[in-house]
Structures are given as C-alpha cells and as structure tokens.
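Sharing a chain and its predicted structure for anyone who wants a worked example. Both blocks are below, sequence first, tokens second.
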Amino acid sequence: MHPAVVGHRVTIDTLNAATGGSDPVENDPDPDSPVEEAFEESMLSIDKRFATLTTTAATVPPNSFASGLRRHHGQDIWRRPSSRAGPSDAAAYFEILFARILLSGDGLVAEGCAASSPGGKRYVVYDVSVRKNNDSASDPHPTTIERRYTHFLKLYESLRKESPQLLQSVNFPKKVLMGNFSQELAGERSMAFESFLDYIITVPSLRDSEHFLEFLQADELRRAGQLVDERRYELAVPILENIFRVLNKIFLDKSKWVLLLLCRLVAACTTSPIPHPQAEQWAELALRRYEHVCDTELLVLYIPLLQTCLHLWWQRGRDRSLLEQRLDEMGKKGIKVKGGPTLAQAIHALDPRSETT
C-alpha cells in the first residue's frame, strides 16, 4: 500500500479564499508529478478487476463489472469491422463498437434497479468506447458508455444553439421515417457520431461545455444517485468508477468535473459501515489530485475529504498523523475543521443530483 500524500499544495491561503478570504489563488502545478504516472500507480490494483474491452461485441461481458451495469442483449445490427485511429490533435477519441436493437425496458439499467415493463417500442443503442490517444500503443483500458440517437441529437442541438458558428461544418445525421433499424443506417450514423464526438474534444469551448458533460455522465449519475439514496453503495460504486474513467480520459486530472466525480466515488465507497474494498485506492487518488487544485469552488470539499480519509484510515488501522497534522494546521489558521458537512453533503451542496444524502 502506498502512503497517502496529503495535499501540501492546497495552501492555507487558497483555503481561506475558498471560505471567503481575500488572498489570491495561484495555479501551482507540480511538473515533477506527471498526471499519467500518478493515476496509473494509484489505479494498478483497480485495473486488475476490469476485463479489457476490445473492438468486438463478444468481448463485452453481459455483467460488465467495469461499468456496473446490466446489459440486455438485443439484436445486433452493426459491428465495427476494424479499429480506427484517433485524431492526432486530441488526447482521447471515440469508437463505436456496435449497435443493436432493444425494446424500451430492455436497455442498460443499473444492477439492482428494476427495468421498465417489457414490450415497449424498439430503439437502437450504440456502444461508445472512449480511448486514450497514444501513438505508441492502443489504450489497454477503453471505457464504454451506451447512448441512443436521441442523446446525440440533444447534444448536437444544444451545442448548435449555443455556438452555431462552431457547428457549421458538422454533418449530423438526420432523423428518418423508415429504415431506422437497417445495418446501413446504423453504420452511417456510427461513423458520423464518432466524427462528431472527435470534433467536440478538439474544440475547447465545446469540450468544456455543460452539454457535453451532460452527454457523458448524466444518465449514469442519475442511476448512481438513486442507488445511493437507497443505500446500495456497492451497486453505485461501479457506475461511478466507469464514469470517472470516461471523464479522466477526456479532461485534465485537476478539472472540476473529474475531481467532483472522484469525490462522489470516495463518498460512495466510505458512507456504508463497511467501506468498499477499493475505498483506500480512490481516497489516495483524491488526496493526490488535491495537491494541484486551485479552484476555490472545489476547495470546500477538501476538509470533508480529509475527514472522510481520517475515518477510513482509522477503520483500516493506518497511520493518520499526516491527515491529523494537516487538519490541525487549518484549525490554527481559523478554518473550521470540525462539525462541518460530510463529504456527500458537501458534494450535494456544490452540485445537486438525484441523491439526497
């Protein structure tokens, strides 16, 4: 087990600024701590639990632990014939592995959640794989989400309304009245969706928009939030893990949305009386990520995160001196370190979702 490094670069000044002080916040990156090295080191044991996804539908297990979701396999109508190369100017790219027909109620649902009644309308679902763009080797841990045509259409229309000039060159597939379930149409749409998503991540204003973030995580956060409300944390954690992997491939490690999702994951892993088996790994990663945080909005999560880790370290019988020292330093500076909100409560105050913890 690697010792946790408490966020020494989250200074008292920045915490004071987050709680109403007037001190400036500096962007203080650490060039000696590469993002990928820290991430891969922390995730080593977690990665062993995931089956590597390849470019065929057969390699995606019916009960994929990586996504924490249950797949109801319908009728496959299209499969990608071969892998594709990502755009050279992007850190990640998208690849649609296959498309299939499902009935409403037979789609992807959270493990443990009841599906809708069978016998509904048919629709096509696309398996969208998010991959790191590495010239030297293919991404060994691609992450998959499932989306329908309506998800892509909503994203396109929202971005076009907000930034029409940036969407002029996008050739988005139109709705059709007939032939929705043909192999040819599914293939054409898949290619168009890949190009659309690849374009978004090469344009910073589109990539960082709320609409794109909503496309990437909204459905999964809704399902995870329902499970958290039901105190079924062991079922919410895999969903959050998968979405963290998606966001972590696309956004910087210290971005608001990656760190907020990581804190959600830590909270889900530690709220139950018996912590999730991977609670320590996620908590350690969160502490490391906070070394570089300079967003005052996110710093309100730092003390609840430290308190959560302090309790987790006590449960695991680990040395808590570094965490206690850090909290003591903050207390001496007049920052409230006791009696505050839990990590889950602080997250909900910052970004309310369906969970009410």
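Comments welcome. The mean pLDDT is 79.
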